[in-house]
Amino acid sequence: MHSTASSAGAVVVTGGGHGIGRAIVQRLLADSAHLVLIEFNEAAASRLRRELDPAHASIITGSASDEAIASHAIEVSREHGGLSGWVNNAAVFADVQLQDADADSFLRSVDANVRPVVVGCRSAITEFRAIHRPGTIVNLSSHQAARAVPGAAGYVTAKAAIEGFTRAMAVDQGPAGIRVNAVAPGSIVTERYTAYLDSLPSADAARARAANDAAHALHRVGRAAEVADVVRFLLSDESSFITGATIPVDGGRTVLAVDAEVRQ
Q1: Would you give the distance in Å from CA 81 to the centre of its chain?
Q2: Residue 156 and which of 56, 108, 173, 261 are 20 to 30 A apart at CA?
């Protein structure tokens, strides 16, 4: 087991009800931290309440972009040893094409993914400084921040901004002992990925699966648990001299530079 920076307090995870967020929750439950989970989807939040012991996890239904929700998460963390870590995982995958939308619509699609990270970081940093604790923040980026996928300009822009913001926060907050890092997954098997393949005719699904596998140097897509392991590492004392970094967990997709998602 990792020796975690969160072992003496609470860790907030946004978007913990499904996909990579759900895997992060399962990994962190192995440690002694109390988890405070922010989940926008009511059905997913209800499932978390049924599955998780309230002694180990508190569930808050609401948007990670809402400062009031983030403040509530901070309040809950104070009841469980104080905040020690924050994982900004929540993301929105809807996108708009710049040629089909006005600037405001496009920027709203960017804001949908950047705002939760800014709100989360601001809330965590303010609390860490108030309690004089050298806490840790992990932001979820994407391989798309480094290599754009056609038709996903808003998402690409947001994830690139998140990586730049991560570096800036690491520089600004480092003197207070606050570490800020990011993780950039490649294609990962999640409910969304599976639903996409299931929506295709069987022959098309097989081709799409093979193309996605071939886009990674390891010739397979990743598992959510593999991303969660790296998030857990960045929250732990084992990464105590790492800050301002974006760690690719992409099976070599970025360095291979073959894209399976080019749209016709």
Answers
A1: 23
A2: 173
Catalytic (active site) residue 155: yes
Of 155, 165, 193, 233, catalytic: 155
Dihedral through CA 62, CA 54, CA 30, CA 185, nearest 10?
-10
Q: Residue 96 — pLDDT band, cuts 50, 70, 90?
A: confident
Q: How far apart are alpha carbons 205 and 260 in whole angstroms? A: 13
Please tell me the distance from the alpha carbon of residue 198 to that of residue 205, in angstroms, as a whole number. 7
- Taking residue 50's Cβ as centre, other Cβ atoms within 10 Å add up to 7
Check: pTM over 0.85? Answer yes or no.
Answer: yes
Decide if 97 contacts 151 (C-beta within 8 A).
Answer: yes
The dihedral region occupied by 252, where left means phi > 0, alpha psi between -120 and 50, and beta the remainder, is left
Residue type at position 80: H
> Both ends of the chain: CA-CA distance in Å?
46
Give the other-Cβ count within 10 Å of 124's Cβ. Answer: 28
